[in-house]
Amino acid sequence: MPARPELPHPGDDAITAAMNRSLTALSAVVQALGDGVHTLNLVGLRTDHAFVTGRSDLSISTNPPLRLAALDEDEFYALRALLVFALEGSTMRSAVLVATTAAEPSPRACGWSIRDGWLHPMDTAALQESVIPSPGAPGIRREVYPAPALIQFPDSEEATPHA
User: Fold this and answer.
1) How far apart are CA 7 and CA 48, in angstroms?
2) CA distance 113 to 86
3) Is residue 111 pLDDT above 80, yes or no?
4) How far apart are the first and last CA of the chain?
5) How far apart are CA 5 and CA 143, in angstroms?
6) How far apart (Å, rounded) are the C-alpha atoms in residues 159 and 97?
7) 3-state class of 20 per DSSP?
8) In Å, how far are 58, 77, 130 from 55, measured between CA atoms?
9) pLDDT of 156 over the 60 cut
10) What pLDDT, in 10s, does the model give residues 8-30?
11) Is 59:68 a contact under the CB 8 Å cutoff?
């Protein structure tokens, strides 16, 4: 018996559908965030109780031509991989995606919980609690705002995402 429980292996069709959904979700997030420099943080709790995190800094410009630049491509690919598994759902108990936008006079943050195969706006009170710096620790206070609802299109490969 292994010292650590094994994670289930989702089927190829479920992974393919989640990969497609991750591209749709990231496109919707980029459009919702708009121009600026944004940091995406994904935190997930796997079914084996291990926490996983991913982070990517993005620069977005909607002035023609549309420009999206990941400041570190490896970080972006790692974040997307975690998003795929969070959207697929069989290896994650819960996950959230928080976007922080560099803004004056203070950064702004919004977030989505990942459930039922999609990103749903987080409760702003819960998000506010999660982005408050710890007492005595250096940190930047973020202005929290409601995340926009993201339009979900049905998967062609999978009738219903893993719940």
Assistant:
1) 7
2) 10
3) yes
4) 28
5) 39
6) 24
7) helix
8) 10, 10, 16
9) no
10) 677 788 889 999 999 999 999 99
11) yes
